[in-house]
Structures are given as structure tokens and as C-alpha cells.
């Protein structure tokens, strides 16, 4: 039998499923439910059972590359967070729900998997998918350039047909875009596009089954130079961090969950039904109103000037 507990502030009875008893509790549960369009997808950075100094430096650099107001960095070790093992996701899902984070990066280090990063996403307070990458040839950001203030939304460039054909590369592209997307905006000033994150596939090291697929991740600053014309000359300055990511393990989302997550709701269905208002293909939104019948003879009208009496000329 499920144990029940009640929160008097929200009026929510805690059983196997949450049930709202008040309007405040209903609004709270709706805010925690899955959304069709997430306004801000926060990023959670945390450590696993054991970490190395390289992993700590990588997570710090990822924190600086993302807007600090939309990123949470936890610096304590977490013994129970092992995403790829059964039952190792409970603590991770709890921390993501507590910090309202939709993406996470878990850093760990072991003899079998040195300098390990686990990228993942959360949907409906459950782990959606996982992607494990190894860090090689890591270089920190340039100290002089790191002090400059850059825009919180970076520009991403994915060079190579692997990001369109290979399943692992497609998953990495989707995870990176979700992790650094930030706030959803309709337009952006071109002067705010001042940095770009470049991802390029590298030749696999080894042969046969031992071959590893790698991605070269570089961070550049966009500099606009004078060119003598109205169009400036664009130069890329390597400001770091830079690293090579090699694929290790991955776990895709279940088919039914993925279908539900990417489902789009028609705006006509999503909008509440309004009385006497319809949508027309030609005219757009059309409304119908009701007016009380009017008696034209009783309407007070302005008298014409021609009927006014004029004084007779002397």
C-alpha cells in the first residue's frame, strides 16, 4: 500500500501519482510537467564518483561558455550517480528536478574510462538519452581573451556530412544545441554574434573494431576587420577551450518517449475555443457580433443648414 503524505501549502496528496487538491497545487504540477516549448533549458554540471583535474577544468570551461545565470555547477562528489547502470539515475533525476535543469553533464575518471564526460537530457523528470564521450588533447581558454565579455548565445558550426548521416554524430549535435541554446528568442542582433563553436569530425584512430570516432571541438571569437567596403572582413581567433571528444557509449531515447517529446501541437487546437470566432483560410480570424435592431426614424440626426430660417434682407 502506498504511503500518503500531504503538503498543506500546495494541497497535494503524495501517493503513487500526484493529485492536486487546490488551484495552487494544480498550477505547480502544470509548471513541473512536460512542456511543448521550453523557454529556458538550464544546464547542470556535476561530478561522479571520482574525477581528475582535467575533468574539473573541462566542466569549469563549459560553465564559462554557457550563461552563468542559466547554468548550475555542483562541486561535490556523487557516489550514487552512475547513469548507465540500473538505479544510477535516481539521484541524477532528483538533482535535475531540484535545479530545474533540462540538460546535464556528468564528469568522471577511471582506469577503464579516463577523463569521461556523460552528456544527457531530461524529459518529464526522467532521463531521456545519454551520450558518453572521452576528453583528449584538452587546452584551457586563453587568459587574456577569457576576460572579454561575450554574448551568452554562441553560434554553432558543424562541418561534415557525418552530422547528417551517422547516428552518434546526430545525437551529439542535438545534445550540444540543447545544452547551449538558452533562452528562446525570435531575433538576434548581428553584433551579438561574436563567437562560434566549431565541431569537425576527425579521422578515426585505429582499425577495425578498435577504431574510434572523434570530434574536434574548438571555440573561436569572431572579429570584424576593415575591408575597404561596406562588408567587413571576418576573422576567427582561437580563444579556447579546445578538446577532442571520442565516442564511447550511447543510449538513445525509447521510441514511444521520443515520439511524445517531438510531437507538435497545432496552434488552432492549442488555442482555447472562443465563442463566435472562427479561422478562415482567406480572411484569417473572423468574428461575429450581435447588434440590437435600430429604428432609423428614431435616430437623432443633424438638421441640414438649408432648412434654417434666415433674416430677410433690409
Automatic annotation (TrEMBL):
Top-rank lineage group of the source organism: Eukaryota
Gene Ontology cellular component list: nucleolus
Subcellular location as annotated: Nucleus, Nucleolus
Primary subcellular site in the record, as a coarse category: nucleus
Protein name: Ribosome production factor 2 homolog
A single MF term (Gene Ontology): rRNA binding
UniProt-listed GO biological process terms: maturation of LSU-rRNA from tricistronic rRNA transcript (SSU-rRNA, 5.8S rRNA, LSU-rRNA); ribosomal large subunit assembly
Species annotation: Chloropicon roscoffensis
UniProt entry keywords in alphabetical sequence: Nucleus
Coiled coil ranges: none
Annotated InterPro entries: Brix (IPR007109), Rpf2 (IPR039770)
Family from the record: Belongs to the RPF2 family.
Domain Brix: 41-256
Pfam assignment, any one: Brix
Amino acid at each position: 500500500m502506498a504511503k500518503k503524505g500531504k503538503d498543506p501549502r500546495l494541497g497535494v496528496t503524495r501517493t503513487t501519482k500526484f493529485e492536486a487538491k487546490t488551484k495552487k497545487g494544480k498550477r505547480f504540477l502544470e509548471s513541473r510537467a512536460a512542456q511543448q516549448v521550453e523557454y529556458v533549458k538550464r544546464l547542470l554540471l556535476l561530478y561522479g564518483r571520482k574525477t581528475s583535474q582535467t575533468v574539473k577544468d573541462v566542466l569549469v570551461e563549459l560553465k564559462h561558455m554557457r550563461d552563468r545565470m542559466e547554468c548550475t555547477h555542483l562541486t561535490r562528489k556523487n557516489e550514487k550517480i552512475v547513469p548507465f547502470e540500473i538505479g544510477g539515475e535516481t539521484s541524477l533525476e532528483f538533482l535535475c528536478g531540484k535545479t530545474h535543469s533540462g540538460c546535464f553533464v556528468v564528469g568522471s575518471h577511471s582506469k577503464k574510462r579516463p577523463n569521461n564526460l556523460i552528456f544527457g537530457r531530461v524529459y518529464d523528470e526522467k532521463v531521456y538519452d545519454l551520450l558518453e564521450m572521452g576528453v583528449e588533447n584538452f587546452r584551457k581558454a586563453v587568459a587574456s581573451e577569457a576576460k572579454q565579455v561575450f554574448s551568452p548565445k554562441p553560434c554553432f558550426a558543424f562541418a561534415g556530412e557525418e552530422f547528417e548521416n551517422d547516428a552518434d554524430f546526430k545525437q551529439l549535435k542535438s545534445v550540444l544545441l540543447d545544452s547551449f541554446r538558452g533562452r528562446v528568442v525570435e531575433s538576434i542582433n548581428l553584433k551579438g554574434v561574436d563567437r562560434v563553436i566549431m565541431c569537425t569530425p576527425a579521422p578515426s584512430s585505429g582499425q577495425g573494431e578498435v577504431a574510434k570516432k572523434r570530434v574536434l571541438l574548438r571555440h573561436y571569437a569572431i572579429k570584424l576587420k576593415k575591408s575597404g567596403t561596406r562588408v567587413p572582413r571576418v576573422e576567427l581567433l582561437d580563444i579556447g577551450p579546445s578538446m577532442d571528444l571520442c565516442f564511447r557509449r550511447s543510449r538513445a531515447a525509447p521510441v514511444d518517449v521520443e515520439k511524445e517529446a517531438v510531437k507538435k501541437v497545432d496552434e488552432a487546437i492549442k488555442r482555447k475555443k472562443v465563442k463566435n470566432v472562427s479561422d478562415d483560410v482567406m480572411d484569417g480570424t473572423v468574428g461575429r457580433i450581435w447588434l440590437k435592431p435600430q429604428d432609423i426614424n428614431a435616430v437623432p440626426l443633424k438638421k441640414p443648414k438649408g432648412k434654417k430660417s434666415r433674416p430677410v434682407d433690409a
